[in-house]
Structure prediction request, 131 residues.
Amino acid sequence: MPNKLKIKLDPGAFIPLRAHPTDAGLDLLSPIDKYLPGHDSIVIDTGVHVQIPHGWRGLLVSKSGLNVNHGINSTGLIDEAYTGSVRVKLYNDGSEDYAVAKGDKISQMVLLPYGSFDVVIVDELAETERG
Prediction:
């Protein structure tokens, strides 16, 4: 039985979907038109609320086409307890202005398993090949 990701949508929001069954990320779409000047950033509230399953986290990752073709990047982390609307911060690393249209793919969310670790101060670390 496949895992389930519970999603609630605000009015006007688009359901996150994979473009292809083998895609790692769920595409997040913009519910609005918004202008992104060169060398600037904007935040777009997707209107998508997710309930991340226990032991997992949602990682927001840039869409490669936006990154490669336009210099538009995004990143973020969604913790298990956060159920507010997913907001995507888009960074325009290029000098050209970019217009985001309603329904455009602006980022993608990848679910990753999460392990919790206690931080321990030590005097030395084990030797490794890379040092």
User: Anything to note?
Assistant: The CA atoms of residues 39 and 93 lie 5 Å apart. The longest helix spans residues 64-70.
